[in-house]
Batch of 2 targets.
Target 1
Amino acid sequence: MRAVVNAIDRIFRGLLALLLAVMVACVTWQVVSRYVLGSPSSWTEELARFLLIWIGLLGGAYAYHVKMHLGLDLLSQKLSPGARRVQARFIHAAVILFSVVVLLGGGLSLIGLSLELGQYSAALELPMWVVYLSLPLSGLMLVVYASLALFEEPGRPSPADGAAL
Amino acid sequence: MIGAVLLVVFVLLLALDVPVAFCIGVATLAALLLSLDPGPAIATMAQRMLSGLDSFALLAIPLFILSGILMGQGGIARRLIDFAKCLVGMLPGGLAIVNVLSCTLFGAISGSAIAANSAVGGFMIPAMEREGYSRDFGAAVTAASSTTGLLIPPSNIMIVYAVASGGVSIAALFVGGYLPGLLVSLLLIAVCLLYARSRGMQGSGRTSLRETVRAGWRALPSLMLIVVVIGGIIAGIFTATEAGAIAVLYALALSWPIYREISFRDLYPILLKSAETTAIVMFLIAASVAMSWVLAYHDIPSQIATTMLALSDNPLVILLIINLALLLVGAFMDMTPAVLIFTPIFLPVAVELGMSPLHFGIMMVLNLCIGLCTPPVGSILFASCAIANTTMSRILRPLIPMYAALFAGLMLVAYVPEISEWLPRAFGLID
């Protein structure tokens, strides 16, 4: 089980770094094509925006797994280990609720809608469901990660520090 | 009613240690389900979250995050610190002032406070400790002064505000942040001088002009980034997002082939760290945009505006109330969701009072910077404690005079619009 999770994490990390690298390359290429080549590229901006959506939603799920999201930790410091276990389960349950209803439910209904309407993006002519797919995928990953954590012993609480601009 | 549900669910979940992004998400969901047909409500919420991220302006944020991390690892911070040491090291309390100035200089080339905090603090806190400063004081100085990077351009949070306000120019916000940022930095230097005098601390020896010029020359390629990136934005040559890409290339070129402080193998962890930070911020943005939509749908911002404007006839008093409310928000909430959620609420009130959206944005950012250094939620505070290997309760005492300095700066910026508006006007970015 641990090995499977670790393998998925490795793929996830690689994917996030790759998406960011491609995004940087897109914006860079846009600058080069506009100022050096004199003919601005039309599709790089759109691709970069879609990549940002994918990084935000998938990375948001990964960040939950590695406990990087910003939050308080005042209560958990005061609780006994037994009560802390209950509290941790409550947090995971709240995350699962949000992920199932909004990210999975809302995301899938958006995909259904865009298939029905046959929506395509303006520059790349990409079917819009490809972009919307990031929502249920993020929801699915969050449900998996939070469910795994439900059956784990909670570790020592530590405040996240990754979220500041 | 809907507003009350939103607030109660949010505060309750926050108190139970649910991560902030999910507090916002679940509270928004609860408010939606009470007021709308569930099926379309949920689909609309998902759609809002996604479209909140679909913005060319927001693309600048990951780029400035990446360039900030590159600069932090690439020896750029060290060269800025060496230069700052030559300039102000001889003053009483020299090293503390060097710390403030280095954070300010680093803030002028990077868009995030956290990058300045770790790049400067990681070196300066131990250096200060060796010269007899307490580690807690060093951590407090680093925490307070790294917030200047959010006022001084490039600044990621100004980009978030530009998006939230729906149309304030990023170029004007960037230029407008210079004087408030320098003002805060000067106030913090004053605190350091007083601290040193009360303890009879001397500065380090004077450096020769020759050495200063040499350190300046070594820092010049890093400082040139200001001219290239901000100059390009002001001159209208490129957008903030394009400037972000240029900053990444520039920082990469300096730290990889020129300074040789990073190698090809370091690129993967740097990219990953940037992607993680980006994801956390973007996830917060997605949730906050959804919440802000629900608030607007129920007309809550205009109700709050009416209530606030009825509180007093005196605009100065209402402005003070807004600031106190934002300080409270900043203590409990991270900066990004605070800007996204409270801009639509307070900006109309501020405009009604005769403030320009530019002035309000800069004041709001400075206000929330204080929140980054205050418990219970203060990411800069957490980061400084981690770097200095100390605890939150220990650095609060040395932070008290810094809070006073930041608050004094906030009051000046709030009540003297020229501090924020003079420079953008001089550059012709606003009328």
Note: The CA atoms of residues 47 and 138 of chain A lie 19 Å apart.
Target 2
Amino acid sequence: MTATMFEIMGVWLVAILLGVPLYAALGLAAVAFVWLAGMPADIVPQKLAQSINSFPLLAAPLFILMGNIMNSAGITDRIFTFATACVGWVRGGLCHANILASVIFAGMSGSAVADAGGVGSLEIRAMKKEGYDAETAAAITAASATIGPIIPPSLPMVIYGVSADVSIGGLFLAGVIPGLLMAGSLAAMVSWVAVRRDLPRHPFPGVRDVWRAYKRAHWALMTPVILFGGMMAGIMTPTEAAAVATVYALFLGLVIYRDFDLRELPRIIVETIETAGIVLALVMTAAAVAWCLSIARVPQTLTPLIVEHISTPLVFLLAVNVLLLVVGCFMEALAAMLILIPILTPVAAHLGINPIQFGLIFVLNLMIGTITPPVGVVLFITSRIAGITFEAMSRAIIPWLIPLLAVLLAITLWPPLTTWLPSLAFR
Amino acid sequence: MLARLGRLADRLLEVAAVLLLLAMLGAVFFGVVFRALNRPLAWSDELSTYLLVWVGFVGWIIAGNRGSHIRILVLLDRLPPLLRRSAEILIQLLVAFFGLVLLTRSFGLIQRNADVMWVSLPLSVALVYIPVPIAGFAVVCQSALAIARALRGEPDRPAGGIPL
């Protein structure tokens, strides 16, 4: 049976490269295995439906909905104005404001695409108006958008947690330090570039104006407090926190800020459910394949083979980094994640690697994958917003990959960066 | 006629999408609220996860209608037009076959679960499996339409990216 599964995976790989939609290729692989193994084909629809019959996974559509509401309710605008008031007066101020706004937005949205398309479009417009070239503006926006799913809440972490059976709350906490490190290293790079290129700065607005900007954004800034507070205090699970924060975002837009049009809601919901459908179709079919892989004992066959050649955890982690970065260049992050989880996590467990650290490495790699050409969703969006070609975008992003790769290396080499905070909370 | 039917189905799906997502959000939210008020609801977890299954399949169908499921087009786009169209037809036949499996092989599941009840509400577990054949049917229809487009030489819809 193991051999059968390997043959199927071979055919499957050719099929997706030829352009078969990923969910269908995964589904067909499961159907083929079940048939060749002489099992009733009813197992496939059963695995599909049961794999998303999961309360933790419910957080995924809710976080997508929350991000979409935030972006339509004028909340992003307040956050960016506040960030600009805070750091706009430093040299290269709007670049720093861009990063700071992404960090704040990361605390209320779980997706790099929501960040790039929402707060990102404000950032790029403001930067171009102030005389930054479109390439720099788009590159910083794309690079800082990857912080979104690292600082909790996080859509990919929900999916990783469900698929790899790791605590989602633990992954969320583990993302805080790496996310701040990413912001810090990007800011350091900005400071260096700002002096060399003599980038523009704002005059210091005065403490009173900063306070005014804060007051305008105050209720929006409470969203991460509700999310974290609820989860950390043990009052709510991540899923419940997602629901409460979504309702809070609606309340902000409808009652407090009054700039959200209720007639917009159906459109936002249909968009949310479309996105959720793309994600969940992959989660379902990948779960069916994961079940086949485990029935066929593929991990048990592969793990000894890999461990035979790679015996230390560090070498394995470095190899995983290289693998994921290469895969991330050519494949959609989520699809890559779902396919590789059942193959790589047993090896990591065998080598005694902390599952939370491994999850963070996985997610950060794939987020970097969203801004590496030739296939990078975030690059696609920022190039369109900035009005530059994808090729120009791909060239502009390259220097900004360095600080992010440095953070990746740091969390690979030094586990406490990811494991310390969760160990503190879940003692 | 066919176009009108298609628009009607689209509309129906969108209404279903809005109602399902709001119901799911409500079930989780009120679960938290009532627990905080010390009057916990027994059904909020079960109802919301079953609704998630429906949300997943309705989203799957909507994404299929809009052609936004993920596929890798790098190689396909390099093919000469005629070969590309033939390849597209072959691919859509494969997709339709998967849809057909979902459509035909889920009735047994529905039947076997028809008299199994939820724990917290007097509803049938078969409800969880009902969206599977609907999605299967939609996949078959969508592939048929894509094949028709390829035969007429129209370009297929662009594939989307995953919003992570």
Note: The longest helix of chain B spans residues 2-36.
